[in-house]
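Hi all, long-time lurker, first post. I run a small reading group and we've been trying to get comfortable going from sequence to structure in the token notation. Rather than ask abstract questions, I figured I'd post a concrete chain and ask someone more experienced to write out its structure so we can walk through it together at our next meeting. Sequence below, copied exactly:
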Amino acid sequence: MGLKSLAAKLADYQTRLEDGATCRIRPEHVRKVLDKLRHKQAALMAEIGETDDPDRKARLERKLGVARDHVRRAEWLLDQLS
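-- Answer (accepted) --
Happy to help. Here is the structure in token form:
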């Protein structure tokens, strides 16, 4: 699952939270998305370490920043549900 689809899931969960429909959000689903985001983050870090191309490294670092932002959002959402 790519970053875009994981981000879309988080956005949907956040919209539900804002609408007061937290009963429709299962914490285990958020944990599953969070695990996938952490896995993607680790894969990006490994790929950054393997590449020598500066342009590719810059692009991967931007992706890593986006992944980190989404991890923070997922952790915040999970805290709100607890």
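A couple of things your group might point at:
The CA atoms of residues 21 and 81 lie 11 Å apart.
The radius of gyration is 14 Å.
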